[in-house]
Amino acid sequence: MKFAIYHREREYAREVGDPKLAEVDTATPEEAESLTAHMGPTGTLAVPVVPAPQWRGVFFDGPQPDQDRAGEEIPVWVVYVGDQEAEPVGTVYHCHEFKAAEALAKRMAKDRQLELVHEAATA
Q1: Does 36 share its domain with 71?
Q2: φ, ψ for residue 8 (rounded to 5)?
Q3: CA proximity to 95, closest of 55, 57, 64, 56
Q4: Strand, coil or helix: what is 20?
Q5: pLDDT at 77
Q6: Which pLDDT tens digits describe the chain residue by residue (123 residues)?
Q7: Are 54 and 82 in contact (CB under 8 A)?
Q8: Do residues 43 and 10 both lie within one domain?
């Protein structure tokens, strides 16, 4: 696991701008602190490095051709949460009405606090 190394004495750290002294890859924070103890005059503090979350957005696209039960071609709009490559990361919702799909996309974006990528047009 990766750990960011900081000065242990927090008041001293604030005085010197709280710089990150290093990043080390060890099994435990105690091991990271013992390996880097020489870096800080007051000892070191190991904090787990958490990777930044990947970007997600709500995608609203269409119309795309689909068929009804009688075999007639009908338009369909899709709404889904996707990654930066516009690949779905969960359920893809298919809507047969533009307004319903648009409302769903806006609601999902608001509820999940994600950016809305609106690439749909009316049929």
Answers
A1: no
A2: -70, -45
A3: 64
A4: coil
A5: 97
A6: 899 998 888 777 778 887 888 899 999 999 998 888 888 777 888 999 988 789 999 999 999 999 989 999 999 999 999 999 999 999 999 999 999 999 999 999 999 999 999 999 997
A7: no
A8: yes
Locate 59 and state its tokens.
């995608």
| Number of domains forming the structure of the chain | 2
Q: What is the pLDDT of residue 86?
A: 94
Please indicate, yes or no, whether residues 43 and 23 belong to a single structural domain of this protein. Answer: yes
Give the bridge partners for 65, in sequence order: 75
Q: Which amino acid is at 43?
A: G
Query: Which residues lie closer than 8 Å to 110 by C-beta, 6 or more apart?
Result: none
Residue 74 structure tokens: 């009908």
Phi, psi (deg, nearest 5) at residue 62:
140, 180
| Rounded distance between C-alpha atoms, residue 66 and residue 15, angstroms | 64
For residue 69, the SS3 value is: coil
